[in-house]
Amino acid sequence: MLALIACASIPATAAAVVCAPPGDAKPVARYTTPVRGWTDTLSTSTLQLDANGSFRWSGLPGPPSVIGGCWRREGELLRFETHALDGGDGVKRAMPEPLTQADLDRVTRYEHKDIRTIAQAVEAGLLANGRLWAHQTRAAGEPVRVKLYEPTIGTPPGDAKVTLSLADGRVVEGEQLSEDDQVIDRHPRPAGGEYLFASLPPGAAIKSIGIVFANQPDRPRTVPIEGATRLLYMIEFDANDTGSIFGGVMRLKVLANGNLEGVPSDNGPAFERVP
Fold first, then answer.
1. What is the DSSP letter of 84?
2. Global pTM?
3. Could you tell me where the beta strands, DSSP code E, fall in the chain?
4. N or C: which end of the chain has fewer CB within 10 A?
5. What is the pLDDT of residues 88-128, one digit of tens each?
6. Which residues pair with 82 in a beta bridge?
7. End-to-end Cα, the chain, rounded Å
């Protein structure tokens, strides 16, 4: 199944994606194809093509178990582009629950009696720093970090670029840290990309965070920010919408019997049209 997917860019769009008519209504139908799960077991998935140009492929050995987006006819091929299933823009700010005294008591109940504050517990690695820094106001000279992550299976964002737009009109690009240099809640989750902004002005006020994914350079995302500048901003992305799981585009060939097959034809089993 994964071999059917090829990397490509998705055209720019200002808001939620609305599919265009596919150009040919003949392929509108339901199709089934076998898929192999992570335990090497076979099951049947369903690909639904609708007349409004949308598709939904369900029963995948996920997560994700469902992907969807838009399809259109290109000669003898059908082109599929994945998009967010909820109709959103694929990114949103996540605000973790703040740490409390109960969290501190939980990790110091039987040992670490010398640790008396939440900040000390975070410094010692006993509590997740993300749950502290995301609520902590930045002081002059302190760095700001952005954590860009996919919350379901931890798919990395690749070579995405992240910028901060400041109230004074400046736009600052963050440094993408190597995996070894990342410090925000690596285990268990969220995994993902971490971006460091080490040299912001003392009174920097962040108005928005800009994100450009490598698969979609012409489709920038913006996350508005309100309130005081924090030490950390957690940004979730939808890997289905950004093309970070499958590359964003799939092509299938329409056969004379109405079935669909991968391009090239040895890329997995055919999609059989349901009568």
1. -
2. 0.69
3. 5-7, 29-36, 42-49, 54-58, 66-74, 77-82, 91-94, 144-149, 161-166, 171-173, 175-176, 193-197, 206-212, 221-224, 232-237, 248-254, 260-262, 272-273
4. C
5. 678 999 999 999 999 999 999 989 989 999 999 999 989 99
6. 69
7. 23
